[in-house]
Amino acid sequence: MRPTPRLVLFAQLFAVTLLAFVLVQAAWAGPKLTVLHNFGAPGDGSGPFGPLALDGKGNLYGVTAIGGTGTCGDYGCGTVFELSPGANGTWGETILHNFAAGNDGALPWGSLVFDSARNLYGTLVGDNGLGGSGVFRLSHGPTGWGNALIYDDGAGPGLLVGRFGDLYGDIGPGQNEEGAIGELSPGPDGWNYTQLYSYCGQVGCPDGDGMPAPPIWDGKGNLWGTTTDGGTKAQNCTFGCGVIFAMTPNGDGTWTYHVAHRFAASAYDGQLPYGSLVMDAAGNFYGSTWLGGPYGHGTIFKFAHTDGQWMVEGTLALDSVGNLYGTAAGGTGSCAGFA
To answer: pTM above 0.70?
Structure first.
């Protein structure tokens, strides 16, 4: 099994020991933290991983990396769960699937996505000896949700759904066994895999290596994303500090990979991007890095198109009414050695 993107699994599991939302009251009367569900009870999942998917009825869907009723060493094999709003502000959890390793898959990671038929898709990191690394589909039937492993040769965290139901992401081993950007297309005889780009075989590939989250579309049919590894090397990232990339379709089914930015390009640049990019109405991209910046503890960046060129700016994300948003992996409290 190919290695997982460096630091991403640790960073996300560390950050989401319980599921919570910050609900900001009108006129900024003060923040209110509401815990919707505490994981870890017997038979429940543990370690929610990745962003949540929202359906049209206000229900939330996600995965836990471990826990559940499956047997994967000393831990469960992970779950897919649904959280539904109830009366009096309460939320109820339903386990849609307990992974069982083998042909069923094991250890889900990343976000879930819906297709037009309301099937759920996600990715599995799997485990040596357990199998099941790849892409799964949960389909709702008269007796509940059924799981199918539709691709079993490796996948990074999360997927992007295309207009015709194709799935895009860090899928496949690549010709150098270092991973690839791939496409899965539904067909009459099952799912067909197409390798769009193979990461290079050298350690710290200058073109990037390993997406921490699925790519996104721009307004012109191109794919944009980041890699955690590869690119420029620095003291804190000897395997490369990551890149921003674009994939452009060529019209014949092939795609061309472009490096748009290599992190650690300056003393104040970020290092090791994680999470998905987001795009505003002007076509600028926003994201975050785990390390780098003036204090070495990460940045939130804006990747802006200025005077015919793309450049990274260390700014926060703005919403439509001018609020600023950001994240912090530390703070003033004590968190087992982290500050």
So the answer is: yes
User: Can you tell me whether residue 1 is helix, strand or coil?
Assistant: coil
Confidence of residue 27 (pLDDT cuts 50, 70, 90): very low
The confidence band for 202, taking pLDDT boundaries of 50, 70 and 90, is confident
The pLDDT of residue 23 is above 60: no
Closest by CA position to 207, among listed 256, 140, 159, 257? 257
Domain parsing of the chain, residue ranges: 1-198, 204-319
What is the DSSP track for 259-303? EEEES-SSTTSEEEEEEEEEE-TTS-EEEEEEEESTTSB-EEEEE
- Report the alpha-carbon distance of residue 334 to residue 124 in Å, rounded: 32
The number of CA neighbours under 13 Å toward the Cβ of 169 is 30
pLDDT bin (cut points 50, 70, 90) of residue 314 is: low
Specify which residues 289 forms β-bridges with: 273, 299
Distance of alpha carbon 117 from alpha carbon 137, whole angstroms: 12
- Render 7-54 in DSSP notation, one character per residue: THHHHHHHH-SSEEEEEEPGGG--EEEEEEE---STTSEEEEEEEEEE
Give 1-198's CATH code, choosing from 1.10.3470, 1.10.357, 2.120.10, 3.90.1200. Answer: 2.120.10
Question: How far out from the chain centre does Cα 323 lie?
Answer: 24
The total number of residues written for the chain in this structure = 339
What whole-number percentage of the chain has pLDDT above 70? 79
Structure tokens at 177: 């066994």
Full strand arrangement of the beta sheet holding 60-67 = 45-54, 60-67, 79-85, 91-98
CA-CA distances (angstroms) from residue 168 to 5, 138, 156, 195, 217?
Answer: 17, 17, 11, 10, 10
What single string gives the DSSP state of each residue in 65-123? EEESSS-BTTB---EEEEEEE-GGG-EEEEEEEE--SGGG---EEEEEEE-TT--EEEE
